[in-house]
């Protein structure tokens, strides 16, 4: 009886574990995009940034969106917004910035939008950058064209969970069939 119960428990284990990841789909999945609509900037230009933050998951997300710019760029107003996003919701935040005189080594105006969990200040979940070439400045050949405009929360656990569940199902099936073959062999 104990052997049969053990075999049944091992056979049911993968089914129980496959049911567990359903809650993972309810987690918030936050992404952010940042754009000013231009590809080139010069001293004196006013850039109008729009940061779009999305919660593509099923659970609400309490986050803070922060826009930062290089020291020679002056942001006009508050550049940090706390927000609660329901699952599937997105919000946009706008801020203008005035470009000052860049340092001689700078060839891009790189502005960043970061999203941090409100419950964990200082822990960045995701970030995006908008990079505009500075008029008259040449980028080194090794970095031309390597600018990002959006980001998404990295390291989703779903593939890992599904892969682990597949391994467990395989092991459970092998043990179940091995146990059944052994049981048939002892009854002959």
TrEMBL record:
Any Gene Ontology biological process: carbohydrate metabolic process
Organism field: Diaminobutyricimonas aerilata
Keywords from the named record: Membrane, Signal, Transmembrane, Transmembrane helix
Signal peptide: 1-24
Protein name, per record: Repeat protein (TIGR01451 family)
Parts of the chain that traverse the membrane: 158-178
Entry annotated with the keyword Membrane: yes
Keyword Signal among record annotations: yes
InterPro entries in alphabetical order: Ig-like_fold (IPR013783)
């Amino acid at each position: 009886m104990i052997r049969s119960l053990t075999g049944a428990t091992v056979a049911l284990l993968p089914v129980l574990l496959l049911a567990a990841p359903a809650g993972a789909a309810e987690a918030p999945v936050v992404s952010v995009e940042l754009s000013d609509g231009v590809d080139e900037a010069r001293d004196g230009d006013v850039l109008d940034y729009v940061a779009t933050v999305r919660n593509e998951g099923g659970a609400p997300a309490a986050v803070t969106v922060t826009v930062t710019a290089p020291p020679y760029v002056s942001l006009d107003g508050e550049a940090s917004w706390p927000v609660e996003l329901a699952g599937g919701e997105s919000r946009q935040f706008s801020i203008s910035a005035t470009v000052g005189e860049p340092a001689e080594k700078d060839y891009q105006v790189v502005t960043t939008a970061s999203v941090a969990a409100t419950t964990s200040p200082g822990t960045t979940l995701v970030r995006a950058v908008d990079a505009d070439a500075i008029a008259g400045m040449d980028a080194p050949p090794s970095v031309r064209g390597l600018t990002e405009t959006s980001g998404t929360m990295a390291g989703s656990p779903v593939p890992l969970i599904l892969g682990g569940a597949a391994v467990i199902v395989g092991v459970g099936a092998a043990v179940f069939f091995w146990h059944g073959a052994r049981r048939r062999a002892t009854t002959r």
